[in-house]
Description:
α1 packs parallel to α7, α7 packs across α8 and α10 crosses α11. The strands form two sheets. Strands 8, 9, 10, 11, 12, 13, 14 and 15 form an eight-stranded mixed β-sheet that branches. This protein has two domains: 202 residues, GAF domain (Beta-Lactamase, 2-Layer Sandwich); 212 residues, Nucleotide cyclase, GGDEF domain (Alpha-Beta Plaits, 2-Layer Sandwich), CATH 3.30.70.1230. The chain is elongated and about 80 Å long. With 436 residues, the protein is of the alpha+beta class.
Amino acid sequence: MPPIYLDPAPRVYPDFVHLLGRSNRGETAAGTTASFEDLEDWLLGDAINEDSMLSLSESLAWQMVAAGLPVVRATIHVGTLHPQLTGFGWSWNKADGLCDEIVVKAMSAQSEAYLRSPLRMAIEEGQSLFLDASDPETQTLYPIIAELAEEGIKHYAVLPMPKRIGAKRHDVVTIATAEQDGFSQDQQAKLDRVLKYLALHVHRHTSRRIAENVLNVYLGHNAGKQVLDGSISRGDGSAIEAVVWFADMRGFTALTELYSGPQVNRILNGFFEQLVGAVTSNGGDVLKFLGDGVLAVFPFQCRDTAAEAAKSAMAAADEAMRNIQAYNANPCEDIRSLNGWTPIRCGIAMHIGEVFFGNVGGQDRLDFTVIGSAVNEASRLEALTKRVMRPVVMSQEVGDLLEIPLDDIGKHELRGFVQPVRVFAPKHWKSTAIEA
Length: 436
């Protein structure tokens, strides 16, 4: 499922930054720390029990204050592996007592805010910076320094951490003080020691976050969580009740003959984007891209009732069809310019049943998917959309759970199934929305 973004007030973030979480424990987050030795002991011991980077960041900030370090603002920035994200950050400020967890979109790398930020040199080159916030030249070079100076900050330290294995860029910590003379040499030495200890914890949490991102991108949220929680053996998984949702593009074979591989890939990406967003925004989990098809599920266990799962699946179908219509009306330039391009058409089918949600495959090459008769039936129902000239169809089991006008389009034989299946289609999607 997509992350839930929170209201950042009273703070303000750029458009490419979204607030994921917030904590405000105040000075209680310092625990029993009363000296720098206590802070070191915590970093070498109990800090391992912090279950999130948000909790770790907040505790560290308040413990630095309790240990006598004149810190009034601190942030941590880490990179990640994700097609749409640059990384995550944690931002603490003594003035408002808040510690925020933020996610940074990939577009940030081209923003003026990043290109003119001291973070850039630390992230890309590993360069440490100790900046005088009152210096006019520094304020001109780095606009954020002028903003910090208005908040009463006098000195700003940008400190890259040692690179993680395989990482192309540095994770970075920033620490600010309101002391006129900045950090003393002794304080800088202490901050350097804190940074070395902190890097171990950040690397641990970051590795977990990167694993989550990669698994979610390639397997989906629910499947990714199960694998990360230990479902990695062949046969691991469980039987679940779900609405199985299957969508397929029309005329894909003709596209492969008409266009080159990269051109077909661009068309597929545009098509999948319209469907995936619709599924995830309605609480579904995309499991597979099958050539030009999409397999998704809406598990009952994630909702109060089976009817709620069916409503979510139907809402996803509605949104997907509207997305495709909007995309066809205004495709991106590299699609519109393709010689012979015609609007995208697709069929969507839904069925309910028990499926096995888990690992299948060989001993050392597994796939996490859903298998079962319900999956096969959903696929056969989708193929039926071409024959009955309806873009969205469903089995009676799904139709019985929906409170929308439906057309009964009769019983139909499905390949591989002995008994004919009664099929329904929503009245608001007629044959004009699809081509056979």
